[in-house]
Specification:
Helix content: 40-55%
Shape: globular
Distance between the termini: 47 Å
Mean pLDDT: 90
Length: about 725
């Protein structure tokens, strides 16, 4: 059975209308009434009752020519992965008392371009335990909850466990309704292919997700169904399909041996799944929107054995053949992966598929262990939305809603704002150490304030929007008889991401060297020069850019200096969060470096006012670099295991036949792993093509670029984003 154009068209037609149907409006009104009637009851019980009602009355949709079942008429759009589902009424009711005061508290830092954020709690970038769902099914999870209920004494714990049981039973009922719908449609199937598809859906929905998956098809159905249903019933963004080649290979191997499936059929099912990872209804109707669903491949299993199998191959083949734009492939790498794996990635990238991010197990697994996570759990990390690290099935890490500007804090130290009087200032300094202490004090100060604000509001999350269905899948929640919002998961973390690393490091080094060592100008004079955007001091700016060592160039003295600064930055975290866990240090990038940089005055590294900051752990775009290999070699000077998040290095390679050879790219990726990089992103782009796309976008409809954590059609980017991407090219040609 092949994933057909007809199936794609059925999806497009359904999602273009389903938010507006009378049935959806009636459901929303009924759930609003139920929310009002249950006020004062425990949050987990309120949510379970919503789940039961949705499972009984919402419309379910089975597609005659699409191989999976998942769609309920709940008002959630195709490209939305949580949050705005019907059950979001619970958290929406708290906007005025929770989100609004938080936003008022952080507004001064946003206005000063020191911070970017919007919500104190994280509804996105979550990952259930697909391992548990596949191996136990919801019936097994219910049995776990019943057994724990027998020994749980606390009333709160008992209420939570009862809610878990009710929510999971509701989902089993919902799946049964899909089976009934498929059977009803089978009687009038339009063709034989539809009849086979509907028969298979009906049989599968009676088993999945209630029972453990037994086949490759059932395993994919379970993963997709639970990802979508948790998004709809919990209002959570489950932003990953998980570690698919590790999860699916045993089912594929068994089916292959038993003659139940062949390779072409398996790949076709994977291709159908890819639809949900792209901002498209079909393969041609693209949207200028970022999706947030990752597919993880490579890496290792819980025992540490590298993963590279036929599913790995098929995932890359399906991605290449599908021509996807927004797909987020997370290809975990390590120094012990076989050459075959690196060659696969090299070939994929060399063909211009700019949708890949490669986190390094050799760095990120030890980094998680440094923060007291079990090795076997750390080995099962996934990309939680872009490439943020979350341990699959064991961790709830709320993040990707908070970014702290290191260059902004450096400027706040140099040029204190009267609107932010509580920060430290250093407008006069006799030595570099005095300025550095003041600057780092400001980094600590803002990090502490944001962490404290989030902690206060996250602490009451459990009181209004518990998640018994999602919680039941995670290790720790049933055993602890606590919801994830109350800290029930095995690991409960918050990440506040810093950004502008190279801009910050280069600026500090410029002050240290230019002012206090070379004494080319006084501290006061240099402040004045920077404040005036280097006007009439272009020669000095060029000296900073081309004569002083900078991040990425491999200078030993600079690297020793920068390594010390990074070590200090890793110590800004460790604060308690509202779920009994801790705040961890992070540097995962998004495109915030662009928007905040374009609001910020000139910096001491020679960056002009209102231009982008550096990206992730990449050198600044105005830094002269001889070759990309120099950037990678430079990474061995730093201990990136200090940061248990993707500290991404983004490299843009020129798309020329003699320079994007697949073997050379494979070697580059392997070297990155061996030299201790954290996460690698590669773009293969042609400068001339990019320039032509500015003038003639209609000639380049399929030009895809890796922006930062996500990929998008070049034509859909803003003018500012397009120019930033073009500015990354190391060789302009």
């Amino acid at each position: 059975m092949h994933f057909s154009t007809a199936g794609s068209e059925e999806l497009a037609a359904y999602y273009s209308q389903q938010e507006k149907t009378p049935a959806v409006q009636a459901l929303l009104a009924e759930l609003a009434t139920l929310c009002a009637a249950t006020q004062g009851q425990p949050a987990c019980l309120r949510k379970a009752q919503l789940h039961e009602r949705i499972a009984r009355v919402c419309d379910v949709k089975v597609f005659a020519h699409f191989p999976f079942f998942w769609a309920i008429s709940d008002g959630r759009s195709r490209t939305n992965w949580g949050v705005r589902s019907p059950v979001s009424q619970l958290w929406q009711a708290t906007e005025e008392s929770l989100t609004q005061p938080y936003q008022e508290e952080i507004a001064p830092y946003i206005d000063a371009a020191l911070f970017h954020g919007w919500r104190p709690i994280g509804y996105d970038h979550h990952c259930p335990s697909y391992d548990r769902l596949l191996s136990e099914g919801l019936s097994g999870i219910i049995a776990r909850a019943r057994a724990q209920l027998e020994i749980t004494k606390s009333q709160d714990g008992r209420v939570f466990l009862e809610a878990c049981i009710r929510s999971n039973e509701a989902v089993i009922l919902l799946a049964e309704r899909f089976a009934q719908q498929a059977e009803a449609l089978f009687a009038n199937a339009p063709d034989e292919a539809a009849a086979r598809n509907l028969r298979r859906i009906a049989a599968t929905a009676r088993r999945i997700p209630a029972q453990p998956a037994a086949t490759f098809y059932e395993a994919i159905c379970c993963i997709l169904f639970m990802r979508e249903i948790i998004g709809s019933l919990e209002g959570f963004g489950v932003s990953t399909f998980g570690h698919l080649d590790r999860l699916l290979y045993p089912y594929y191997a068994d089916d292959l041996a038993a003659g139940r499936i062949n390779r072409a059929e398996a790949k076709d099912l994977l291709a159908a799944l890819f639809i949900f990872t792209d901002a498209k209804f079909g393969l041609t109707d693209s949207f200028a929107a970022e999706t947030s669903t990752t597919i993880v491949l490579g890496g290792c299993d819980a025992a540490g054995a590298p993963v590279c199998n036929d599913i790995t191959h098929m995932l890359l083949e399906a991605a290449a053949e599908g021509g996807y734009t927004g797909t987020k492939l997370i290809a975990r790498i390590s120094s012990v992966h076989p050459a075959e794996y690196f060659n696969l990635l090299g070939q994929f990238i060399s063909e211009g598929h700019n949708v890949l991010v490669m986190p390094n197990d050799d760095t990120l697994i030890p980094a998680s262990c440094r923060w007291n996570k079990r090795l076997e759990d750390a080995r099962l990390y996934v990309g939680g939305g872009c490439h943020e690290v979350v341990l699959g099935g064991t961790e709830v890490c709320t993040r990707a809603d908070s970014w702290i500007s290191l260059p902004g804090l450096l400027l706040q130290t140099l040029f204190p704002s009267s609107a932010l009087p509580a920060f430290f200032s250093c407008t006069q300094a006799d030595c570099y150490e005095a300025f550095y202490r003041a600057c780092m004090a400001n980094v600590h100060l803002l990090h502490n304030r944001i962490a404290a604000a989030k902690e206060r509001y996250e602490r009451i999350w459990r009181d209004f929007d518990a998640t018994p269905l999602y919680s039941a899948t995670l290790a720790g929640c049933i055993e602890n008889a606590r919801d994830v919002t109350a800290g029930g998961a095995r690991y409960n973390t918050v990440s506040l991401s810093m950004f502008g690393a190279a801009t910050f490091l280069d600026s500090l080094f410029a002050i240290k060297t230019l002012v206090f060592e070379e004494k080319q100008c006084s501290f006061a004079d240099f402040r004045a020069i920077v404040s005036q955007n280097f006007a009439e001091h272009e020669e000095l700016r060029q000296y900073i850019l081309h004569r002083l060592p900078r991040h990425g160039q491999g200078d030993a003295a600079y690297n020793a200096f920068a390594a010390d600064v990074l070590r200090d930055l890793s110590c800004v975290a460790g604060q308690p969060n509202g779920r009994g866990g801790i705040v961890t240090p992070a540097f995962y990038p998004h495109d915030i470096f662009l928007s905040c940089g374009c609001k910020t005055q000139a910096t001491p590294d020679g960056r002009l006012a209102f231009t982008p900051f550096s990206r992730g752990f990449s050198p600044s775009e105005n830094t002269p670099i001889a070759s990309v290999t120099d950037i990678i070699r430079n990474l061995q000077a730093f201990d990136l295991t200090l940061f248990p998040e993707s500290f991404a290095t983004e490299l843009t390679l020129p798309a020329a036949p003699d320079k994007n050879d697949a073997t050379a790219i494979a070697a580059l990726i392997q070297t990155f792993a061996e030299y201790g990089g954290s996460t690698l992103q590669l773009n293969v782009l042609d400068y001339a093509v990019l320039r032509d796309a500015l003038e003639h976008p209609e000639a380049h409809p399929n030009l895809t670029v890796r922006v930062c954590g996500y990929s998008q059609s070049f034509n859909s980017l803003s003018a500012q984003q397009k120019n930033e991407v073009i500015g990354r090219m190391m060789e302009k040609g």
